Amino acid sequence: MKSIVNYVMKKSGLRLDMYRESFLRRRLELRMRTLGFRNLSEYFCYLRSNEGEIAELINAIAINVTEFMRDVTPFRFFMEKILPEISEKRVLRFWSAGCAYGEEAYSIAICSLEATECNFTVYATDIDDECLKRALMGIYSESQLRNLSEEMKRKYFERIGNKLKVKDFVKKHVRFRKHDLTSQEPVTRFLDAIFCRNVLIYFTEEQKTKVIRDFYEALVDGGYLIVGKSETIPKLGFDCISLSEKIYKRKPRHPDCPTDDRCNSEQMRGTSRLSGWGGGQKKR
Ligand SMILES: C[S@@+](CC[C@H](N)C(=O)[O-])C[C@H]1O[C@@H](n2cnc3c(N)ncnc32)[C@H](O)[C@@H]1O
């Protein structure tokens, strides 16, 4: 397994060594069985002689299960408690990290349209190209929207045959881009809330800690971090606001703590220099 991990890392740059070993083994074995190989050595030979298989394997590792307002209650908390609290600001900034097909990002946008009159942007990222392509289209089957009321469906979606398409006035708030959470490359800063739900669960403790540190840097003081219901995080610089909803709030930086070097870099001073965002408004 180690040889496969090293090979994929070398070829793709994805830090597979930062994923939990048991998780990786399950995904690799599933891919191996799907292709009809009896063991990982046979699969490794195939992987080396088929360029396209690396992308297929990465897709198999990225489990994309999701839906609108997944688990419902964290989104209710966001709408009823967090948004009213932060709505005195003129512009709000959110990040859906590991957004899969976009349901989470559009859910954040819908909650914001329901609960605040502020202008806002939802930045949404994933490592999976296929997910991002579909997220940009914003077309979903009815079952993905089972947590939304009929009124919400009417208000925020248009029907196209038996599918539902996110209306343009919602889409214009959401911007998609490819991003690997193991890369530690900055996405944006001065965020009011980060949703990173059902992604950290795949990572080693070391990688989780790195990602939480990056989130700390990306949030404003008092900004919120919302993780998946079954996930735990090292509480580095965060207070737990709701244990049941897994909602955390960034503590202010201690005055004695020197600013992280990355915060001083050009790249970290906002998004204006970062390109590659799809969707959303063209100019802001
Ligand atoms: C189970 S889905 C979660 C989707 C959504 N956040 C939710 O809770 O419904 C996990 C997503 O994490 C993405 N992912 C996995 N590893 C990643 C990484 N290193 N960087 C960014 N996204 C990653 C996968 O591609 C997948 O779309």
The residue fraction in helices comes out at: 25-40%
* Low confidence ranges: 258-274
pLDDT average, as an integer?
Answer: 89
Give the biggest sheet.
Answer: 8 strands, mixed
Could you give the order of strands across the largest sheet?
9-10-8-7-1-2-6-11
Based on secondary structure, the structural category is: alpha/beta
Description:
It is built from eleven helices and eleven strands. It starts with a helix and ends in a 5-residue tail after the last strand. It has helices at 2-12, 21-34, 40-49, 53-61, 73-86, 103-115, 129-137, 150-156, 168-171, 205-218, 261-264; strands at residues 91-97, 119-126, 139-141, 157-160, 163-166, 174-178, 191-196, 219-227, 238-242, 247-250, 278-279. Mean pLDDT is 89; it is low at 258-274. It is 38% helix and 20% strand. α10 links the parallel β7 and β8. The protein has two domains: 2-61, no CATH class; 73-273, Vaccinia Virus protein VP39 (Rossmann fold, 3-Layer(aba) Sandwich). Bound molecules: S-adenosylmethionine.
Please describe the structure with a list of short key phrases separated by commas or semicolons.
11 strands, alpha/beta, three-stranded antiparallel beta sheet, 11 helices, eight-stranded mixed beta sheet, Rossmann fold, 38% helix, binds S-adenosylmethionine
